[in-house]
Amino acid sequence: MISSLYRTLGRMVPESRRDKQEELLRFAGIRKPVDLWAGSAIFLALLFALLAGVTFVGLTNYAPDIVAELCCNKFFPYIVGVVVLSFVLFAINIHIRVLISIRAERAEEAFPDFLYNVATNLKGGMTPLQAFFASAKPQFPVIGEEARRAYQTSLASGSLSEAFDELAKSIASPYIQNFAVFFKRAIMSGGKTAELIENYADHLRDILSLKRDLKQKTNNYVAFIFLTSALIMPFLFALAYNYISSAMHLAASLGEIGQIEELPISFKPKISLKISDFYIMIYTYIFIAGIITSILMSLLRKGKTIYASKYVLFIWLTSILVFYLSQISLKAFLMLS
């Protein structure tokens, strides 16, 4: 019954998106029909939207003041539902793309060793497909499992080129996909199989080594960006918040003194900024800066913005915690009221 519901919801996905979604699921290692997976994702999003609506109704009954403050029009509950629905679907899509990137990275790390094994087996006298299957070892992350599937698919033709093609279709790695194209063309040109495979493995290992070196060199930049955005700026905001709060208390006190008629000087300072407005400004900055910082860290570490989702929540929580603790510590240390 649940599967039928999922399939019904999954049919809401446009036909033009099905092939692309199927490819993404295959790259992510999810072996489910598109209708079933898409339906489960839509059902989960609808469930969260319903929970948001129930929560809003609960607030209406038990905290009407909060609702009156939040709800500016009668369509607000529907807006909340749509926002939650969209956010959950977006989060699921991000999760799939992160899975794809993680699988591709793990496969790329193991691919040179896999190719060396294939070349060694070929030199040992195995047939091409036997050499391919014998190299699909469990210790090779992602590659081992996908190579066994590719072997089963290409058994009918007995072609090593087709086996590499099938392997490339299941992993979103440009290196593996380029090798499949290169290998097919090289074999058609009369190249020696074992030597071609070994040469590409050497080339790929050098490329991956350069990537690792570059990643280590960018760690200092990543640390500096994180330190500035998540630690230093929240501390400075806490310092500014305490001084502005103290200045506003002082202004209020001077205003009271200015109301005394016997004094020859009248103090009536006017400050339009409210402390609550400044608070909102700080948290808005933390929210925006967290997104920008996570994108920069993602680009420096992985070269892809998709990994920003891994960092953004941690940066937000760290920034808020630093701001809160700094605010309390500075208030006690500087003895500000």
Q: What's the number of helices?
A: 12
| β-strand number | 0
Helix content percent band: over 70%
Q: How many structural units, i.e. domains?
A: 3
Question: Are there runs of 5+ residues with pLDDT below 50, and where?
Answer: none
Give a quick account of the main beta sheet: strands, pairing sense, barrel closure: none
Round the Cα radius of gyration to an integer and report it.
30 Å
Globally, the shape reads flat
What's the rounded overall pLDDT mean?
81
Structural class: mainly alpha
Tell me the series of helices and strands, N- to C-terminal. Answer: HHHHHHHHHHHH
Percent of residues in β-strands: under 5%
- N-to-C CA distance: 62 Å
Please provide a written account of the structure.
The protein has 337 residues and is mainly α. Helix content is 80%, strand content 0%. Helix 3 (34-62) packs antiparallel against helix 5 (76-123), helix 9 (174-188) runs antiparallel to helix 10 and helix 11 (275-301) crosses helix 12. The longest helix has 66 residues, at 193-258. It starts with a helix and ends with a helix.
Q: Which SSEs are present, and which pair or pack?
A:
Blueprint: H1 2-10, H2 15-28, H3 34-62, H4 64-70, H5 76-123, H6 128-134, H7 143-153, H8 160-169, H9 174-188, H10 193-258, H11 275-301, H12 308-333
